[in-house]
């Protein structure tokens, strides 16, 4: 079993071999992000979704098409967004990444009383 430092070192080494252009981190944990707790029941008809990150489900266009196929809309994060879906992988530095901005913005709006849900990719996929 690897400890955290060994896990990080091994992942960095593998990333070096693969020449990937994105950072893959620790699998999303509910305690590391401001996810809705308990996670909400998701519906699609007439609802607006926004995606942030890199998804196991596939490219963002496939995620957005899954929403459209079920009667919803997908696009940029606005105050009219119903659900923000966060990718399955995050790193310890998510707050400093480009997709961290969407998470902060959605969290602030939620704290102000807007009804935006913030969910993990795995939760979203469970409702497809």
* SSE sequence, one letter per element: HEEHEEEHEH
Number of alpha- plus pi-helical segments: 4
Low-confidence stretches: 20-31
Biggest sheet, in brief? 4 strands, parallel
Arithmetic mean pLDDT: 80
What structural class should be given to the helix and strand makeup? alpha/beta
Radius of gyration: 15 Å
Q: Classify the beta-strand content into a percent band.
A: 5-15%
Beginning-to-end CA distance, first to last residue: 34 Å
Structure characterization notes:
The protein is an alpha/beta fold. Helix content is 32%, strand content 15%. The chain is built from four helices and six strands. The chain has helices at 4-18, 60-68, 100-111, 121-125, and strands spanning 26-27, 48-52, 73-74, 83-86, 89-90, 117-120. Strand 2 (48-52), helix 2 (60-68) and strand 3 (73-74) form a beta-alpha-beta unit. The longest helix is centred in the N-terminal third of the chain and has 15 residues, at 4-18.
Notable features of this structure?
128 residues, alpha/beta, two-stranded antiparallel sheet, 4 helices
Outline:
The chain is of the alpha/beta class and 128 residues long.
Helix and strand topology:
Blueprint lengths: L3 H15 L7 E2 L20 E5 L7 H9 L4 E2 L8 E4 L2 E2 L9 H12 L5 E4 H5 L3
Parallel strand pairs: 2-3, 2-4, 4-6
Antiparallel strand pairs: 1-5
